[in-house]
Fold each of these.
Amino acid sequence: MEGTEQVVLAIGVVADPMQHPEVRLRAQGVLDGVKGLASGGKSLDAMARSRNAEALLSLCASLISTPASSKASLECKFFGINVLQQLVIHQWYDLSEEIKQRLSLFIVECCRSLCAMEPGSEATSYPLKSKLAVLFADMSRLMTSDATNSQQQDGVSGSGPSTASDNVIRSKLLPELVTWPGSRGVELACMVLRWLPEGTNQIVPEALSATRKRVLLKALQESLPDILSFVYQALDKHYAALTDNTGNMQECKSVLDAALEMLLRYAEWTPIALFQQYGVIHACGILLRDRRFRHMACDILRQQAGCKVTLSDVTKQQDGSSKQQAGTGKGSIATGFGSVNMMYNNSRNGGGKGGSGSFDATPEEVLVHKTAAKALYGALVGPTEESLSTEYAALGTEEYEFGLTLCETLVLWGRNYMKATLEPDETNLFLRMMIAFFQHPNFNLATPTTEFWSQLLKDTLVQESKEGLGSSAVFPDGFLRALLDVIITRLQKPLLDSLDGYPSEYFESAKQFHEKYALFRQKMIEISKYIVRGRPEEVFQACAFHLDSIFTQVQQAPNQKSLESPLEAATHLLFTATTVTGQSISSQSPSLKNLLQKLLSFPVSVILQSDMLMQFIRCMEALGGNEHTVVPVVQCLLGILSTPAGTAVDQSNSTLASEQGRRAARQQAATTVMCLALQPGAVKILSQHLSALVEQIQGMWSQGLIQPGERNALYEAVVVIATSCGLEEQQKTFEWLFSETCQQWSNPQWQETVMKDTVTFMRGVGISSCHCVAGDPTFNPQKSGKERMRLYHAVQLVERMARRLIILKKKYSSTSPQDQQGTAPSIPNANANGNTATSNLTVALVPHLKWIFPVVLRILRFIHYLASPEGRKMLGPSESALEIGEVERAFLLGITPSGVSPSAYVSATSGSSAPAAGWKHTSSAIVMENDNLDALRTFLRGARDSIYQFLGTATQLSVEDQSIATNLGFSTFFDGMATLVPEIFAVVIEHIQYQDDRTTRMLVRAFICPLVRNCPQNYWAHWMRTLLPPLLQHMHSRLTTGWHAFLVGNQGASSSQTDTTNAANAGGPVVEHGDEIMHDLCVRELTREHLSLMLTISAGDESGNAYFHMQKKKQVKTMLQWLAVDCPQSAACLLATAVAALTWPDSETGSKAIKVCRIALSMSQEPQYASFQPFITKDMLTACISSLTLPSHADFQSEILMVIRDIIVAYSDHVSAILLTLPNIDNQILVSFHQAMKSKGSEKDQRNLVRKLLLRSGGSELKAMAQAHRPGMAIPQLQGADFDKRDQQQNKPGTQNQNAPLLETDEQAPLSNLF
């Protein structure tokens, strides 16, 4: 080992930044060698260890005693202490007793010398004190665990209580610490005690073994009374000196900081009773009033408040002798609290239960802890009241850390002890303090209180309501009402004037503000739900009071913007309360009845002049859902709708935002009528007024008082009401609903001018910028806009009616007879023949399909044609109407702040001149009658998606009554619409190669999947043989090409994503960024939907579980099995797509693809599907092996391994050649693997064997397999070299499904032929 001079020189070189790097590196090597010697080695014998230890001790003594005048003296001391620490930690148990004694004496002498140094010297700096304290604590910790452990080895049991001489902490450590002189000695002693428990967890490197840890913890537990007594005396003495200015102020403050830091470490696991018994809680209560120490003191109390003790089994007792009141004056900590018993007697009674968890205790022990918890409350209550009264606002800003700690302390104490310890007057005070924190302007400070309120209300109100108990004694009179007032106030959404208008004193960004407020608002709603379940009438009264007050102010001044947020908050709480309780309880509330009467008598003209219309309608929805109020509420809503939009409004004060708000409110009013009709009991009452309702709606529509969207919602409500009537009444209702649409769509003149071909269609619904209408003097933009609106809402009406009927049919068919008896009003009544109309709800719609389907299919073909090159030429400058808009693009890229509409964000960041308040509203400014791109884009996409939804819904239409089905010629969609197969084939396949990914995804999701899922087995040949082969082939080519381009250009896409993120963070417009991200997102979504379709074909459902369930019952018959026999090349396309999808880095796609592979593998073992085997043993196996390297597939890796195992077990001879191509796998290893597979019977063990075999090759080699073989890219030829001869035979001229003419001509067949 180098000498002292060389080590000192090396320390100086390393500490000097001006030295040459190579010189510093060599010097560092010298120091590392010394540290390595201190760490020891297993190869050294005892004598060599002793010699090295003596040399290191001599070296460290020289380094630590380096004079302050020497160069790098402090660095020398640090290095000497570090070497000693390495020696103690790594070699203590291997050193001889003589070396241990010399080492411990030297460390003790170092600490004593430090305490005796002159104040202000460099040697007394905090880093040196800290390092010496850590060294002394490490030595003491090892001495404690080593001494008792050696006694156990000599046959002394360590399970019982040890004597004082056995406990090193009590017999040696504490007596030594109390002898250290001066304030610095007390500070150093507290620092040693602070580090003493360290190393008892398994995180730090020097963690003790389990046995030694138990020994140390036992010694610490037995020494706690002496340790806490020592620390309390230190706090008492030095705080008194600090406040009286009788000592060194800085040293006294250092002592208090060290003592509090030590107590904080012990507070995590020390019982609260010990802290109270030895005055620590008392001391922290005094220090809470001192700004210099209150944060640390509060943190200590927070740790203690989290020590929960089971107190519910013990009756509350009044123990006057245990109460301690917090002192109000400064000075000694003991002032005002009386004497605290510091004697050691009964110390083990309090210290016998360590840890912070709950434990079973005797009544006496629980009473002790109750007393301690009451003392903790006494320490908190005085300082908390002072802080709330003198610095309430500052607790949320400059004193936020202390305010948050104080709030969390109160929350923890209240959750654990409030109900079991406080008297009524004390409970009232505590709840008032919690209310103060709950309503603080900085809801970051109020958020922790939500946990307290949720638990308290759940344990009291909800539990009492379940058990049928009376009012709880926990809450004083009027408290719940006060809490509800605060909740309504806090539910008010902040009114921000701009994107940057968030409270910057509380939050760092607008995004943080919106996210945290949304979470806080959600928690307040949860709290209100607990109150509703226990005291519903309290909530109803609070809502009624606030709403009555607000609407009174609205009547006096309709245009008060300040009332919007309070009204929304009160309405939201009312809506939540009535939803939780249900109509049976809310309908009996006197306060809600009075509120409804006032709202019904409220002047409609006044509410129309304000911006409160939406909340007024929501109140009506919350109050009018029972059979006694539904009729007047519906009449009120119809009265609002009967007033034309804008007639009762002062147009001079109207803005774009307010006009949009009124439009949305009117639409909500119409939708509310439908929602009320769905309420239990409402159908029966409203059905008595069906004729009057129909006449009123017809009159409003004829006079132009309602918009088409509002009309559709009211029509849907009429359909819901009509379901309670007989079949004849339902048929009359649908005749009335569709009369106008049927008359228009059946008009030959309209068919000739709008629906003849794509050109006439675009001239009828296009805009001025379309190329096909350019220069046409007969084109009228206003007329085209009205036609666009009329056609759009007609399609919407058809789709909504069909969807509502299917929803009602599923609802009624899933209701058991017992449930029907219990909820008779919500179930349709019996008709005149005595049969319920529920099984034939769709019968009234069926006769109208003959004129609906040809039109909607023709519209869809027109829209699809626009995506082709010829169609885009027809659009000309309006071609971008087929692309995604800026608003939706911003939403999908996630660049808008939470709570801000994408349209407003795009407008604000692009410098729009729209009104400043407009960004607050989420409704779009797009009006379909306008002559612009947004109007055309909305029409094309809305009509297209609605038709997709209608076609998918129509596949569920059926008539169960055979006699009615025979009369109608319609049993199911697949037999009734069988003649439309060629047209549907054209709709799906024609121009699909030009459709964007989002359009194709909606087509697959909304129409193709329901079509395949609902198609009966006896119609597979007629429908699926025509549709699936070209679709599966196209999707295979499309997806493999798209994913190959993505994987090759992945780096560029990542770069684009970074650019987009940076632009979003900068707050600027991002319209020019994110093309690669959008393309990637669309490809992934389309892939997932197509894999869902493949699972439906393979298993019968989108989850894939139905196949394996049926396989166990030997009842398997899926569409994939039929395809494999009848259309083998279509099955090949499906398998190739599934195998290729395994190699694509998308978790949802991979999870679906592996299920399809499992099904195909199961099928391949049957003789009729033996043609699958070559593809499975090569492509599927390769894809499965390479997919194991994808991080996205980690969640279902076991399923992949199971497929690999099954392939190897079933086709071991075929896969051996592929396995032998992997590195580090030869014949011998493969033979051993197969033998092990035969010996292991469990599936899990075999999967592990497969994993171990493949791990031999390495991840990079397995990943390269997919790149080299590209599994699934080529479609296998399962039968012959030609593509599906059966399909070609079916498509020959003269056959039933002749689809070629629909694809070979640009002109569609005349519409009249389809009728």
Amino acid sequence: GKWRVPSYKDYLELFRSLLDCGKMKEFGLVETFQMFDSPLKSLNQLLYDEFIKSVLKIIEKLDLTVDRQSQSEEGGSGDINSSIVIPTSDPAANLQPTKPKDFTALFNLVEFCGELLLEKHTDFFEQWVYRFGHELILRSTQFPLVSGFYKLLSVTMKIAQKINYFEGVGAKTRKQCPKSPDKFACFALFGKFGKEVAIRMKQYKDELLASCLTFVLSLPHDIIALDIKTFIPALQTAFKLGLSHIPLADVGLDALEHWSIHISKHAIEPYYKDILPHLDGYLKTASNEIENNWEMTSVNTSSKGGNKVLIRRLKNARDLSMNEESPAAAVRRRVVRLLGSLGGQINRSLVAAATSEEMMKKCVAWVAEGALSFAVPFADMKPVIYLDSFLPHISELALSANDRQTKVAACELLHSVVTYMLGKGSQISEGQQETMYKLNKHMFPVLLRLGCDVDKVTNQLFEPLVLQLIHWFTNNKKFESRDTVALLEAILDGIVDPVDSTLRDFCGNCVQEFLKWSIKQTTPEQQQKSPVNTKSLFKRLYSLALHPNTFKRLGAALAFNSLYREFREENALVEQFVFEVLVVYLESLALAHSDDKSLGTVQQCSDSIDHLKRIIKQKARALNEPVKRRVPRGFSSDQMVCLTDIVMWLLAQCGRPQTECRHKCMELFYELVPLLPGNKTPSSWLDEIIKTNGVSFLVNKFEGAGNEHDKCSGIIFHPTFNDLQQPFSVRAALQWMDMLLAALDCYNTFIGLHLIKPNELLGTYQKSGFMKALHFFLKNLAMRDITAAEECFAYGIKGILFSPREREEYNYSKCTIIVRIMEFVSMVLESCEQDLWKVLEKDLLSSNLFELVAIVVTDPPSIGFNMADVQVMKGLPDISVRLLKAVLRLPYRDTLESNMRKQITPQSIEGLCNVDLYRRTDHDKLSSILLACKQLHKAGLLNSVLMCQTGSIGLPLNSKLLSTVYKGIAPGDERKSLPSIDNSSKMLADGLLQLSFSLGGQCEELVSLLLNTVELSVPLSGASQRHFISFSHGEYFYNLFPETINGELLRNLNSAVTQLMGSTRENPKMVSIVLNGMLDQSFKDHTVRKTQGILLVNAVLKNWAKLDSWWLKDSIPESKMAVLTLLSKVLQIDSSVSYGNSHEAFSMVFQTYTTILTDSTLALNLKTKAVIILPFFTHLPEENLRELKNALNQFIAAHFPMKSDEFPKGTLRYNNYIDCVKKLLDALELSQSPLLLKILTEVLCRDSKHVMEEAFQICFQNIVTRGTCEKQVVLLEAAYEMFRNEEMLPDTTRQFVLDRSLLTLILRCSPEALREFFCKIVKDAMEIVQSR
């Protein structure tokens, strides 16, 4: 049949059975093995763990990056791409996956896990909740627009709920119950991430939004209860979308039922009035199935004959629908039950919650007097009706009628009425214009909503109509014409809608259309003199861009991103407005500082500024001229603003406390300075500024918080809290920190880009408050909590209780400054300017700084770092390592080391050496010490810091740690019943091993531990004492930590391989396992394969002679297979050993290979594995090829039948034979070897028709079509040589060679090859013909 692409569904049954292996005994599958429940259960657990590990590995390997479709920025407004890429507030729009196959793989994996994990062994998942969740959140933070991660996180939360994972865990219980740190870390992680997603998803659409809603609504009720207000909008959205997508309604109802039971009444009751009205839609959509079925039956009963079958089927369908509820009916029943369970006092919110405003909109007429008269043209009379009073009801039906026929009819009527209104409006008197304006004001918002309706008919009716209305109303001659303004305001109200992102995007298109047609319908002279509509539009955009409301600012940015293509093409508009727009949007970006990043205001606003930057770059020459332009906010009204003024203003804005705005100003400054007259670089331009105005000018800009006119702002005037002269509040403390951060950012960026000389700026100017502020921060705030800030203020009430949110915000600001200080110090120390260090020693490079660095490295949570924040987890260690490396070669090293030793005490090192892997006490603390040691090792400070700390341990620390882990995995007293090690303890042990190896000199000891043959025997509980599992301690150790151990062995290749291969006789199994593991690990990564992999192969081949005991005739089959596996991996990494005698190990390797091929004691199925690597040996010198040919002939004589149909089909011998022939054909295809062609042609031509005839023919065709001309000639000659071999082959066989091999090759080869072949054999062929 037709080949079908396999999907995850094809493998579900297999994995269900595998994960149910504990039930095999019930099915009678394992009675013959006399196995018992307990080992099957532990096998079950092992399989489950490996399954989860594999899922995480696959997720890690997938490349989920996306490319944004280019907007063809430099093209004109008529370019092709501009019609494809539409500006939108949807962050997932216009994206293409870099590797679509990886997304397909993720989709299958997510669906697979969703079906499997929720139904199988949820109890096994307990130890994976934190790690699985943590990995997914890491990836989701990296790729926030990939819905699969949210689906997997929903699955995680559902399992956690099933197994009551978070029972007894909450924000209040943390300090009382430190027994399960993983659960608390998990609670904090999901709490923080859940909130982020709840806010972020307001911008999402479609399947991504559905996935986020499912995840957020599956969070534990304790997380929801902490901040229920954040999660209510998610529930409302789920119920809105659930009307058209039933699964979301079920998710919402599950959540609401769960919350109403578990969240305290006083917390949730105030929100029912916001939630319950969204359930009304489910009760309105009453099911008409029964009526419809009866109608159809009655219609068809009047027919005769064949229709009886139809009637019977309809009746069956009716019976079915009565027995089985439709999904919509099931949801409706759940809604009714839920409302009933909530009780009358609460569920009355369903109908009573409508606000008086909403009631007014529905019940009050739009205009008092009728202006829209229509004479109905009956035959005998023309009565006049007024359409005004019908409009509100028609609009409501068009927008929200549940019945589609009613909706479409209302839309068609409304379309006609609007067209009629337009005609009527152009004819009425001045007095009636007021009424028409009021009607338009109500009508435009309705038309815009209908223009982006999901219903196709509605959309097709109203989208063109709205665009035509824009064309009509932009033809006004008067500034602020009322109807034009009404339309413009309706569009801008739509673009700032906080809920409907489709409406926002449609209104974005309308804004573009508005500007485009305003330009089209005015002359260039009018635009230069007074562009009326453009002024109206920009005036309103400025108002929205500077509005406190987030969505209004988002709408303003989206509007500009939609219209900038039209704007940039009109020089007159650019000349007048570009600077004004730039200043406004930079102010808007500053206001977005406190917005949640996931809402998209920062992104959209940054895009607007990027568009403006490109426009300014293109028009720079004209903008350098000082001509009369619109004056931006904050500039002198009589000023002739040019590009130089803007660059000076941007320099001042670089010191703004608002982070995103500051960064954008720095970027603009850096890119616009070269466009100024004189084309100077930023550094030379700044040098001139310093010469003209002095260093103080620049310091004022950096430390003045961006306020040129406010002379008492920034840390230059307020270097400490005391200088603020105001009572304490958290807000005041945060504002001061933002000002310090701004100055730090400026110095960091400008010094880092070599725009200014650090000693010139920091060393000479005495009035700077920067150093004083840093000293104050390091001494009083950095290592203490929010109460320290309170004490530093001169005024205000002390002893306030701070909310968790205030503490979180304060810690976030403080820790951001700490990170920036560390970056600044790293940069200063890397610059190697000793004069500068002397200047900074007093305030910055002091003992306070190095004490702080020691704490950041060893215990970041103690000073406020949130380790549940993914960015902190990933980024903080790198920043710490950079600073530690910078200090390494400097006089401050001793101070840093002594501070480190205070944090990493001898007791903590002893704790690491005496850790109990099976009792989870202090594992968290030990993990943080481990992380610190890793950072110190990367920086090269570990040995010197730990040297003085390990005196009490006795052994060197590296040996002690290795011994601790080795003995800890199998404690002496418990070896008889070895406990299973849980995931987090295993990760800790792995960390200890890595630390041990990083201290160096462990290789010899490690190999001897791996080769340790002490057996661990674990009796099977429930079985008699005869049944037990045995394995060596070294093998168990290696299987637990393969990657870490392989990494250490690969770092000490030669000694490790020599020591291992010296034990090939004593412990062959372990040597084989370790060597194969090392080869596998070096093969995985391409770069490692080319360097370390080749070195490893050389080390193995150098010692190959020591493996002779594995492949000699009298050795066991397992060891022969082990050497074959080893050889195949060696050849995969580096095949140079198979090139012939040029390699010193060739003769031994070749002897190994031919001995295994000709070994009479090995079965065919084992030797087939040797055939796989045959292509490596087919290009050898002549004498070696003869040897190989003899070996292959012996191999075929020993195992192949004389006739291919000799073995009965389906038997083991037949299957082994077929498999081996397939492998030989594959080897021929890969190598295109004439030797193999001859051997396989002989095998084929023993029969008149081989059982694999077709496979042979396809293979022969492939080798000749894929080969070069020279290769084709060689193959033709080889087949011809067989045909001419009269002594060795009988005539019938030679005939077969000619027909089934040579002829196949001739028919498929190129004409050039055929010509050359015939030239070579023509003489011989003629002799044969003549002799006959």
